[in-house]
Q: What sequence folds into this?
């Protein structure tokens, strides 16, 4: 691992932290002497994008709660993270607002009775949209990685979809898989 290199482990983002716990991104960056911050760009009810509707088992064009963030590493934008929740879970909760959620979304979901027990992730490389290119300060020919995570509860019910877009330079994604 290079000095100051952040390795992102999905399992850290799926486990609730204590009420006073800082966010996982800040802790991951701090562990290698860097500064991870984030900004909630928008939050509220929107028509579900097609792929999100499929993953959350919502009718096409149906409403979901969307929470859009930009993640920063040492002050530079490094990832666009959009989280989506079924309205029956998230409407009227902190997930539908732009204020910071103490202990994070995973903890809030658990408090609401929705505990993640399984996650499925897909990673794809593609060219960014113009908005993504501008938000991430990318060069004209620079691709992005798009990581889509579907989180399910013990009943197999989809409770969250995250769509993360990041430049591949300097990215390391770690997966820990328990077999059996």
A:
């Amino acid at each position: 691992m290079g000095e100051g290199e952040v390795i992102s482990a999905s399992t850290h983002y799926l486990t609730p932290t204590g009420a006073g716990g800082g966010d996982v991104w800040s802790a991951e960056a701090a562990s290698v002497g860097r500064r991870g911050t984030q900004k909630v760009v928008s939050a509220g009810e929107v028509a579900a994008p097609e792929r999100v509707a499929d993953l959350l088992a919502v009718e096409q064009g149906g409403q979901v709660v969307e929470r859009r963030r930009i993640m920063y590493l040492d002050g530079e934008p490094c990832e666009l993270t959009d989280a989506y929740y079924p309205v029956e879970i998230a409407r009227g909760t902190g997930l539908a607002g732009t204020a910071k959620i103490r202990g994070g979304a995973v903890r809030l979901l658990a408090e609401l009775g929705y505990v993640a027990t399984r996650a499925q992730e897909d990673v794809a490389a593609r060219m960014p949209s113009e908005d993504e290119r501008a938000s991430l300060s990318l060069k004209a020919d620079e691709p992005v990685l798009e990581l889509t995570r579907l989180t399910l509860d013990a009943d197999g019910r989809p409770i969250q979809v995250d769509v993360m877009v990041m430049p591949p330079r300097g990215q390391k994604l770690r997966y820990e898989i328990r077999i059996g």
